[in-house]
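User: hey, got a sec? need ANTAR domain-containing protein folded
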Amino acid sequence: MSDGDTLVPALARLVLRLPAAPDRSDALSELIHTATDVLPVSGAAVTLLEDDRYEVAGAVPEELAEVEVVQQVAARGPLVDALRGGEPVAVTDARRCGDRWPEYSSAAAHYGVPAVAAMPLRLGEARLGVLSLYAAAPHDWTPQDLSLGALLAGLTAGHLLTADRLRRQQRLTDQLQHALSARILVEQAKGVIAGARHIAPEAAYELIRAHARRNRVRVHEVARAIVELGLRL
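Assistant: Yep! Here you go:
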């Protein structure tokens, strides 16, 4: 495990950089590089659960993605167990797991990463994926290793959930703004047609709607043509 001289600055850097990451891939890259800096590992990978499907979102070195994919395809392995159970799964030596996880054991041997600690990315009941910490030699994972891995995973899970919530809120705001703009445009168009034809606004709206139906376009598109292009009905 990293000493305090390395650990504290690395964690501080992660905490500061996560909110500033422009997108999810950058945030996960920060997580992976921090993990390899502060833990006795040779690499790390992140697999996310997207609509009940696994997605390898990042791996350093890149070939570790293959170890992740093997487990996903086989639907078994430390990664799968950690995600399903919501608890860390530590493997000291993959060569001893051939009976339980033959596909993972073979892939781990092939890529030279016999030890792994699979840390769930979760916050409360939300399970987002797994941070897999790989070692290039058999390794007895200490409670400190696992606690630090869980801390990194928890920080990142919190960031991912917050970022997702903000994206949803922004999407809703954009939708509401679009609906409001369209409504204002329709009201303006009703006023234009009502004034030109000397009819009530409700009657003007019926003309606009009928024109939209005949031409298979949206009402607000007809309204825009009336207000901005001078269309008259």
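Quick note: The helical segments are 4-20, 24-38, 64-74, 78-85, 102-110, 143-197, 201-215, 219-229. Let me know if you need anything else on ANTAR domain-containing protein.
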